[in-house]
């Protein structure tokens, strides 16, 4: 009988010891988990502090807006003229970069302040322009110039609706692809379709105010 009691006592002690150790391990795990959560929370707070620029916007959003222009027609025009200059300089790599840039600018163009019919027209222009700009971003220079011809028409059509704060010059090369137009800020002819081959081939067709 005393041996049975002794055995039961040992079993009870062993059980209590195991329970205590198990609880301790559980507490350690909980502490570790809490620590991880604490680090995660700290990381999240730190991340928020890094990205919040004080005006309620995150840096990531601000950067995306900066890359994709401000949604104005003028931003599209600026990117268009940069692209034109790259083609004038026969710079295929630069034109690829700028093709991607103007695709983003057109995609971000804000049409909310126009009439319904103008919105419809602008939406069609944007869709076509983005497609050609994307082709420019991945093509050799000969194909870039083919797509630039259509892109130039899209930009001209956009300006007919949105207007422009600068005087623009519509210029025309009678030799490229049966006759091709482009827009410029200057009266001087710098041909984006031939570049250095025939830099000054063309004429001013009209002024756009």
Taken from the alpha-carbon principal axes, the silhouette is globular
User: Secondary-structure element sequence?
Assistant: HHHHHHEEE
Tell me about the biggest sheet? 3 strands, antiparallel
Rg (C-alpha, Å): 33 Å
Please work out how many helical segments DSSP would assign.
6
Percent helix: 55-70%
Please give the order of strands in the largest beta sheet: 2-1-3
Beta percentage is 5-15%
Distance between the termini: 113 Å
Based on DSSP secondary structure assignment, what is the total number of beta strands? 3
What class would the helix/strand composition place it in? mainly alpha
Average predicted confidence as pLDDT = 78
Low-confidence stretches: 1-68
């Amino acid at each position: 009988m005393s041996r049975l009691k002794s055995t039961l006592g040992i079993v009870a002690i062993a059980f209590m010891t195991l329970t205590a150790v198990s609880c301790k391990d559980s507490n350690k795990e909980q502490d570790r988990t809490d620590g991880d959560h604490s680090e995660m929370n700290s990381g999240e707070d730190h991340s928020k502090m890094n990205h919040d620029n004080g005006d309620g916007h995150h840096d990531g959003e601000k950067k995306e807006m900066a890359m994709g222009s401000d949604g104005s027609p003028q931003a599209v025009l600026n990117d268009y003229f940069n692209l034109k200059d790259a083609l004038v300089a026969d710079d295929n790599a630069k034109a690829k970069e700028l093709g991607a840039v103007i695709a983003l600018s057109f995609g971000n163009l804000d049409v909310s302040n126009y009439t319904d019919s103008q919105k419809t027209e602008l939406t069609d222009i944007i869709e076509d322009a983005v497609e050609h700009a994307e082709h420019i971003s991945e093509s050799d220079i000969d194909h870039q110039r083919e797509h630039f011809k259509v892109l130039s028409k899209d930009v001209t059509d956009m300006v007919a609706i949105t207007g422009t704060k600068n005087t623009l010059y519509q210029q025309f090369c009678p030799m490229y692809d049966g006759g091709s137009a482009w827009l410029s800020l200057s009266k001087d002819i710098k041909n984006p379709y031939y570049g250095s081959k025939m830099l000054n081939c063309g004429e001013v067709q009209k002024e756009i105010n």
